[in-house]
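Is guanosine-5'-diphosphate placement plausible here? Inputs below.
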Amino acid sequence: MAVTQHPKEEKTVVLIKPDGVKRGLIGEIISRFERRGLKVIALEMFQPKKDQIDEHYPKDEAWITRIGQKTIKNYQTYGADPKKEFGSEDPFEIGKIVRGWLMDYMTSGPLVKMVVRGIHAVNMVRKIAGATMPADAEMGTIRGDFSVDDATAANRDKRGIHNIVHASETPEEAEHEINFWFAPEEINDYKRAEEDIMF
Ligand code: GDP
Ligand code: MG
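Reply from A.M.:
I modeled the complex. Tokens:
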């Protein structure tokens, strides 16, 4: 029988992207997780290599197609023509191009990587981060409070959408990212002072 972990043991990975670091938002971002009651258990700034970013993001056809579909949906909202900008309306072809821009964006400066643990950490951190396209993100979220970028703007400039943070989307993605970015000894354990009262 599978051992079910306590919901407060769930872990997720957050990367503060180069725009977040260069805009001086590191402290602001971390404090949003901490004040919600999530615990930072690993933290480091580093300059990523392109092959690391290539390993970090999924490469399967479904993921690449989904990226292309997000662009197409965003274009529909704003009346833009994918064919004109990409020479294609195929979500997989569009996704491949966007993934290339993402490599350049994510290696354009240092990143801050962290592991965040707490109740439903994956979903909670995604909620705090907000929607992928900052122009769609709710106010009160990191992306909604600090950016207004979206695909129509980013694609026109041939760059990734500057959306400040990365956060794992599923517990499986989180597990892959934790193992990829962190050695076991880099992940720490401690008790937050308010833990007995909050949970
Ligand atoms: P996330 O999980 O919310 O970060 O979104 P995805 O996993 O779908 O995409 C990964 C990253 O690729 C996003 O955070 C953006 O930086 C970038 N991105 C996603 N979709 C697009 C797009 O349509 N156009 C551009 N230029 N960048 C995109
Ligand atoms: Mg993602």
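Short version: The mean pLDDT is 95.
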